[in-house]
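User: Quick sanity check before I run a bigger batch. Here is a single chain. Can you write out its predicted 3D structure?
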Amino acid sequence: MNAARLAGQVRIVGTGLLGTSIGLALRHLGVDVILANRSPAALRLAIDYGAGREAAPGDDPALVIVAVAPDSTADLVAAELDAHPGALVTDVASIKGSILADLTARGADVARYLGSHPMAGRERGGAMAARADIFLGRPWVITPHALTTPAQERLIEALALDLGSTPIRLSPDEHDRAVALVSHVPQIVASLLAARLLGGSAAVPALAGQGLRDTTRIAGSDPELWMQILGANAAPVTEVLRAFRDDLDGVVAALEDPAAPGAPTRLAAMLTRGNQGVARIPGKHGSDARYETLVVQVADAPGELARLLTEIGEEGVNMEDLRLEHSPGAQIGFAEIAVVPEAAGRLAEALEARGWELARGGQTQGSTS
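Assistant: Done. Predicted structure follows.
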């Protein structure tokens, strides 16, 4: 067990997915974690999971982390600032500007508040979905404001590094504009596309391949939580959606008469810009390297996937990414293994020699998200 960079007690208010995950990770490092939740049952569950302990007389946390829904964040941050005058208080909500504005308007001691946001999560919420490794390799945004001190920034940076994240500094407004594009609008697009599956022939969903699954994966997220997030970040989200709508209108116009002069060019430009945009998404270790994909057929039987991964390791090849796709109605699946191009041919020959059936894929962006 590695030593934590954080010193002193850490209090976590909110034992949902993020709060419990932070607690699990910090407890693994030996940090004294104090948990609080308005629901006694949710608190007991997180404690039973090993994410921390109940508050006790004499507790004196150096850091308080508020991990609750966005519409409750400012209230609880203000309460924790009052209750713990020697602590720095942060929160992990996915919006930052409106929380700081709310705290400032009510006269809270924002000199001891520094918002942050780990860019990590899952489609399922609650303590039962928590994982200590959920933050590994993910960005953790720190949003300093006019009263923030360097020591406070270093404390939140230590938290992020302890949890395996990469600290990134943005102003609250810069953060909100950024997450509108990379997180909030994708949720809307995924939900709208998934909603098109409702009604109509039952055969349509049966045709779904990995492309639809990838595009709609986050559509299973909690509607109540996302209503709060979108409402709190409405202006930046609206700005992105307007530009998206204009682009979409251009595609619709081109497809209404695809043979018209200029229509093929507009469609090609749209697809090319998409290629250029996805190439900017960082992949493993923050790089934008491109990998070659091997598609391996895997029997839907216990131990088969584990055997494949073990044999890849035995060949001395580092797997950069892995994606699984099941074949509807068949007892097989497909494992898409991304490796560096110079290892692809050697690995393909080795796997075929070991009896695996595979087909070469094309290049793929080095992304694990």
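The chain is about 45% helix and 15% strand.

User: Great, the batch can go ahead then.
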